[in-house]
């Protein structure tokens, strides 16, 4: 089971449009030619070091990465025509094995990292924090381990962080709460522990949050109620508890009902008890609600006069 993608659910969100825009950008014709430019040596050396860290390339996608081709013509690389600087590292589903070179942090113009569905292992280099122009960090479906690098919080232009389905450990860095432009944060299906930081309530642009299939504990922060742009929230399959009248419990956190733009809520498999907050009726955009594999009782959704608006209801 994969963590839901906003485009899969048919959201009418800006994030879905952003992902589409990136797809278009990644498939634009390459206008840079070796005869026109001499090349940027820092970028070229960093890319060759990236290749050196690859232990297996069964599809031969890096065969073009040699001195007979300009590095802006190498497969998976996009450069801007004006400065001839690398702006995208785009090698999804390439079956590459290896680690990510720390020299990736030397690409001063890099905006897009798309390395999903490979077999990258090891930690995410702290040097990624030097990529001040980075917009997209996509590394899902790899075997990355270690802790999430705190330095990523220095990439103030980040809009998407997708690290789901890896083997990351440790806590969610509270420093990520400073990323005011972040719209999607997917860290599900890892081995993360600790609490969801209250600083995540500062993610004023966030549209989608997924923490599912980890080992998170404690109360979901009440600050989640500040996320008025949130349309997708998934916290199921953790050890989280809820907040009710300022004491520890296993109830659905009432603060969620303040996120009035929510379209999807996944709180399945959390051993929740008690009733379903009737205040969910205020979430007029809510289309998908998953509360399955809990111990809920009390009021029934059958009595809700708004339940007919759901596209999918799992209790």
From TrEMBL:
InterPro entries: DNA_repair-toleration (IPR053211), Leu-rich_rpt (IPR001611), LRR_dom_sf (IPR032675), LRR_N_plant-typ (IPR013210). The keyword Repeat applies. It holds the Pfam family LRR_1. It comes from the Eukaryota. Residues 1-34 form the signal peptide. The keyword Repeat applies. Keywords: Leucine-rich repeat, Repeat, Signal. Residues 41-80 form the Leucine-rich repeat-containing N-terminal plant-type domain. This is Leucine-rich repeat-containing N-terminal plant-type domain-containing protein. The lineage of its organism: Eukaryota, Viridiplantae, Streptophyta, Embryophyta, Tracheophyta.
